[in-house]
Request: fold
Amino acid sequence: MRRPLVAGNWKMNGNSESIRVLLAGLENTLAEICQSVDVAVCPPHVYLDQVGRSLQDSEMILGAQDVSRHVEDGAYTGECSANMLKDIGCSMVIVGHSERRHGLGETNDWVAEKVVAARKAGLTPILCVGELLEERETGRMQSVIEGQLQAVIDLGMENFEGTVIAYEPVWAIGTGKTASPEQAQEVHAMIRAYLAGFSQGIAQDIRILYGGSVKPDNAGTLFAMQDIDGGLIGGASLSADDFTAICQAACQDG
Ligand code: PGA
Reply:
């Protein structure tokens, strides 16, 4: 039985005051849900400390949105290491989000190195995979996603132990277009089958989240699918009411 996980990816949004208000809204409502669902929030780096302090008495998990692929301290201006994130209280980190793969040119190999760096520091990576619309329409979806997974496998299949995968079709992110529950389920099952070719145990245990325009009104049907173990939520995670409703949907599914 895989425990559902709902993670809020706040992206580059907010300020200290809006974050204070959002957290106050979440803390009131999420305490009970957290007993059956893992709930994580991933603020921008500069607010991790503020959010971590305010989550001290909460079951909510603190996550970051990115991490350096470099493990050791050094001359990497602007970067933040996995050890630093761990030091400040993070336990999860998103890696390979499509806005970094496609917007900032992160390669499959770099993303795989980030997975390794995160695990080395004791962080749970949330590895994002997903295809562009053009890749789906030209029949390349499966090979693109398998390539994203294979880069991590090449560094050792054990890197998927405890790791979380988020399937996010790029055409569904922030666009209001969601993959249908059946479309998402098909890809989630494909990901699990690919991993099973290397380790049955890991494939069975790994949590695969769906991300891309998840809202309170579609979360329930998505989370009800057999291989969908929760969600990575962008826009809707900035509203305490919407995020709570989505976590609730994961709760009912479990
Ligand atoms: P969205 O973003 O929910 O706003 O589509 C999801 C994500 O990018 O993780």
The chain has one domain: 5-253. The radius of gyration is 17 Å. The pocket of 2-phosphoglycolic acid is lined by residues 9, 168, 173-174, 211-214, 232-236 (CB under 6 Å).
